[in-house]
Structure formats: structure tokens, C-alpha cells
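Re-run requested by the PI after the first attempt was lost when the workstation crashed. Everything re-entered from the original request form. Ligand of interest: pyridoxal-5'-phosphate.
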Amino acid sequence: MLKQNLNLTVDKKLAKKAKYLVIADALRQAIKEGQVAPTEALPSARKLAQQLAVNRHTIMAALAELVAQGWVEAKERSGYRVVENLPIQTSLATKKVHQASKDFDWKFRLKQNLPVTPKIKASQYPYNFSGGQPDIRKFPFDEFKSHFAQTCQRPKIDNLSYGDSRGEAELINEISTYLRRVRSITDKELMICNGSQEALYMIAQLLLQPGDKVAVEQLGYPPAWAAFERTGAELTAIKQDERGIVPEHLAQVLAQGKVKLLYLTPLHQYPTTVSLDISRRMQIYQLAQQYGVAIVEDDYDHEFHYDSQPIAPMAADDPAGLVIYISTFSKLMFGGARIGYVVANNVLIEQIAAYKMLMNHKSNVLVQQTVAKWMQQGGFEGHLRRMTRLYQKRRDFMVLQLKSYQDKGLPIHFVVPAGGMAIWLDTGKSIVGLKEKLMAEQVYVQTELEFNRFKALPDKEYRFIRLGFAAMNEAEVEQGLSIVMEALYGKNLRVL
Ligand SMILES: Cc1ncc(COP(=O)(O)O)c(C=O)c1O
């Protein structure tokens, strides 16, 4: 029987799509809805053309499209019919097969079972005190866009293909010159990575194996620890105080053997912000040399130092060549830029480059070339100057705010950090449960619990939080802090 009428919905929003395809969509939808059943004939092309006020050729093209997709078939002299087995049924059948494969035991097949935790997005919180977060709203996107346009107008065709995994020569050159000037690092090779996390991962894979130990600061950066542990190596915590890690404790740990790597954040210790004392640096370096231990120096936010020149990194005075220096553009730009770098001796850089080739060939060339232009033409320096001034003001503002709470009698304590993007605050109270409580109030903070995996501190009370001051303006900091203080001390402290 020939179907006389179909209720067809032609989507007018699809103006850019060819008319016959829009009509094919509408017919397919009518079939899916069961307006016309399998094996039943469709209205004639003439009728459809009349109904939709289009040319008959357009209808014929739509029907041909549906034939090609397997929804209808042409029957000689009797027009078009819906096929007996709709493609939708075939796809349901395939789905069933897929469902059956759900029983496949991937857990059993996996060599390693990585912890899968729901990722909390700190940036979604209106009051985001996340420690190393820059104010991305202040990034000069227009300026960057013009460099990006230049990169695309005169593409370097050769570089856009596969090739050297160390990164774009222009960018390597710019960053090396910059590091020579601001961090006194010379006589080492530099390569670009997909953020410093990739560098940490590759270093771990190349240097560590099960049974090895990695000495780390007792409070530290969990993503680095995770990369080290993934190799089967074990972490050993080194005690730290207000001058950084304690060399005497490091000496004891190294004397027990098996330590292959020492991971440090000497300039602004993560998370406490303490700068590692110069005399301790020398002791630590000598110990590392004595026991043949490589040092990974993570100089993640050296750009932001306010009251004086930052102390030169350990990599600047490395006669034995045992320091592997890493840093990032995640604070200067934003984490999603995924530009980091590793600086080390040539033998190691060659190996890291070979490892990167295995993983992902090279980092994004267009972004590297754009950043290189941004640096060559002075935009980078200007942005850095502006952000340093701004973050210094924001640090000072947060310090004033915290002092005002001290004046109100709250037993909070902190040392004003000479640089970085966060304050390490002793709240004077246990912070267990504080993070969750604040999240319910739209405030994101990181607490000491997140930075301390070494719970071998029996009667220790966790009291510290890390308060990032760079990402928010003064009003946001004032309001956010008042929520934090009220959550800790009640007393109606909120200013909103
Ligand atoms: C201690 C430390 N190292 C490294 C990084 C940067 O990592 P990436 O370059 O992978 O973004 C951060 C950023 O939060 C950090 O805090």
C-alpha cells in the first residue's frame, strides 16, 4: 500500500546543508518514528515534492541518499519502500555485541591499575585559592593571537612535519637565552616538553626501576611523586623545617643506599614556599655527588619573586652535571598551554628526546613557534613585568587581610613569602574536613593533607592550608578569605 501522507519536519536551521539532505533527514526521522513501516511504500516523489514545495529532482536526490544509507529501496515501477531490516536494527545488534564485551575483564588484562579519582576542577569555584593558579583573565590573548596569525601566515613547512623531538630551535634558543640571563644557567642542553609533568615522567622512566628509592621533601608535589612511583620506585621523605630540607636527615637516608634521585623545589618549596638555605644547598649537592644521586630541581614559578633577586638555582652551579632542571610556562601563561622544558647534560637530553619520540614525537609546533615570536618581540617580558607587579600587590593584599584576622584575635600564623603565588597558612586548628566544608561554600583550597603522604608522624595535627593569591582580584580574595575564616572560627566573619 502506498503511504499517502507523512508528517515531515524539515529543520530550517540547517540552512547551510543541501536541501535534499535536509529532506532525507526528515524522511529518515519519519521512518524511525514508525510513520511508515518496514516494507511499506513511501508517498510518491510527486506527492512529496508538492507537500514540501520543492522540485521533484530534489526529492529524487533525497530518496537516492536514503537508498545509499540503507533505509529505503527502489522497487521497479512501484516507487520506494522502506527496507525490511532498518539500519537502526543492525546498529542495535552491533550494540548488543559490544555490550557482551563488557564482560571482558579489562581489569585482569591491565598491567597496571591506575587510581581513577574524579577530577575536581578548581577553576570552577568562584573563590579559587588553588596554590599555583595564575590569573588567566589577564593573559594578553589579542597580542598572542597576532603572533599566532603571523605563525600561520608564514608557516615553516619543514618543521610542521615529524622530526626533532627536542622542540622548535627558535623557542629553545629564546628560553636558553632567558634562563642564562635570569637563572644563570649555562653549559646545558634544553628541550621542550608537553609541560614539566611530561619531563618528570620521562626522567622517571629513564632513570628509575623497581627497588630504587627517590628522596623527596616531606611535604611536596603529588603529581611528581606519582610519576616516580609509577616505575616501581619507592618514595622516602626527607624532613624539612623553616630553612628547607634537613641535610643531616638526607645524609642518613642516603647512607642506607638505593636512592637514585632527589626531587627538590628549592626556590619556593612546594607547598610551604620556604627557600632552601644556601649553605644547605651546598651540603645537599655534596651529598648527592658523594652517593651518585641525580637531583631533579623543579623551578616551577621562579619568575615571580618580589623583594629581591631570587637565589640562583642549583643547576647554575653544577660542576658534576648531576642536576636536571625543569620548569614550565604554566604559571606565566596557563596550564593548558602545555609548554615546559628540561635542562640537563647532553647525554641525558638525547635519551629524553628519544623517549619523547616514542610517546608523542614532538610538542605542538604552532604553539612553540608562536611563543618564540612572543618572546622575540618582547611581549613575554612585558607580560611578565605586569604580572609580577600585580601578583606582588595581590600578595601584599592577602597579607594585610590575614593580619586583620590576626588583629581580630584569630590564632593564625604565616611567613610572608618572598615570591611564588601562595601563602602557607597555619590556621591554628585541625583542617581535617575543611576542604569539603569549603567546597560546599564555593571556595576551593588545598590543605596540608594533600601534600603529605607520609603519615608516619604519629601525633601530628594537620593545621596548614595553601592559599594562592595570584588568580583572584582583591574583592574575590577578601570575600573568599572571610568564608575560610568563618568556616574555621564561626563568629560571623563573612563579608559578601
Ligand atoms: C611543583 C610544581 N611543578 C610543576 C608544575 C607545573 O606542571 P606543568 O608544567 O606540567 O603544568 C606545577 C604546577 O602546578 C607545580 O606546582
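Saved to the shared folder this time. The radius of gyration is 31 Å.
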